[in-house]
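[job 4471] stage=fold_predict status=RUNNING
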Amino acid sequence: MLKKLEIALRKLLVLILSGKKRERKVSAIPKNSVKRILLIRLNRIGDALVTTPLITLLKENLGCSIDILADKKNYFVFEGNEFVDNLFVFKKGLKGFREFVKNDRENRYDVIIDAHDDVSTTVSFLIELSRAPYKLGLAKQNHTIYTTTIPRPDSVKVHVVERIASIAKAFGIEPERNKLNIIYRLKKDSEKYADEFIAKNKLGNGYLVGINISAGSDARFWGVNRFTNLINYFKKFNVSTVLLTAEKDYEKAREINSAAEAPIFMSKNFNYFAAMIARLDFLFTPDTSVVHLASAYRIPTFGIYVKFETDDVIWYPYNCAYEAIVTTEPNFSNLEFESVIKKLAPFFSSNYNSGKH
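[job 4471] inference complete, writing structure tokens
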């Protein structure tokens, strides 16, 4: 009951903010007026990863200082990114808003950017609280809170990376698809951890296939038997296979391993997990943030996706080789092994034949 009330109040607040008229509207932001930008990207890991191409685009074309306000669930995506000058983590509640106001007043940003593809009540309030002369975002339900908006590209036709990157058009910057690259910088300790795992399990002598079994919800777990059959399929080739899992699915990974031997890689540390992805030659995964890590390291990826009651473009790997199979049902219950292999086989074969052995 309380959750429903909270959602209703948020919707009401968005309507109030959306109804507020902004006196000054500008169609474009002059480049020479931009010295400091604050970009807001809350929510999950994948949301942060698909925003990194925009950050690169702005830094390379404007050369200004770029600060990021991130979430406690995704801030580490921006750590080590050479295009980020300062990183702040938003804290929920009144304290978070107070800290934001203090930071906003001290840094005197020229532009504040809402990098969200949809409407966020929290971000809408932060935009309103900021004293930045330019307030930029995609044209959405709350468009009146901005001084400058860019038409939101059609989510049925345009990938989320391109939708977010289109924000750069406000500065006269035209995004080029081949230059929109996802960035995730690895740390040396995480690379060492992944290398030690590979050496211990004798996985470093050829073509390495990663099978990620974990996603954000149980609806995207493909099933123990199907993953077992998948490992056995890859055993037909001269490859090494590693099972990748989140902590919540570790017992499922053990079941799979007991039926078809493959070492299990699990780490609570996302940096370690990313380092392991970077060392793969091929990845099989359900729709999750791992897809975007594969994009960052140009790992050929086969994805399985749930596209239930939506026409939006799936968040497929961007600017790297990929193939996918999509179900319009709410979960993978009826996504049979044979139908996946039929599409996986030619894609894997083409990448395996051209890869290292």
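[job 4471] summary: The first strand starts at residue 36 and ends at 41.
[job 4471] exit 0
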